[in-house]
Give the backbone structure.
Amino acid sequence: TQDNYKLPGDYYYVDFNGDGKINQDDQAPMGYSNIPQNTYNATIGVNYKGWGAFVQFYGVNNVTRNAILGSFAKQADNVYDIGTWWAEDHENAEMTTPRFNTNAANRYGTQFDYDGSYLRLKNAEISYTFNSLNVGRYKFTNVKIYLNGNNLWVYTKMPDDRESNLGGLGQNGNYPTVKRFTLGLRFTL
């Protein structure tokens, strides 16, 4: 039985359906689904005497994400800072006993469930536009030089900055969100 694998510091599991066994029939809903109930977006911009700027915020809420960060499972060669580990002298820790290459009870419970809500500065741009510009024999009716960035800041309770959609490998297959900067020139002859 699974009790043979239990060690001090493991989770206690609840026999939710009361049949005397802890198994998949004892799973119960916790938190929200992994699909956000709400998404929101706000874009604010200004233009004044050729100067322009805008910011776009994007966010989601009422979502629970499961991000298993098993530092010691399956001989992983990375270690995440996911909180304090249980020990006899530290019983109110955030994480259960760490294990290396074992199945433990092969259950994480809600250990890796996170509030997946976030607010992200999705886009920001600053620019200057020349309405008429002569460069040598070329006459430009409009020249805009700009610097913009994507995914510049995020507020979340997740352990890292993952996109909210699921990756090809499941919930652990998500790639961290990449920051991107662009310096550009847009012109009209």
User: Anything to note?
Assistant: The mean pLDDT is 79.
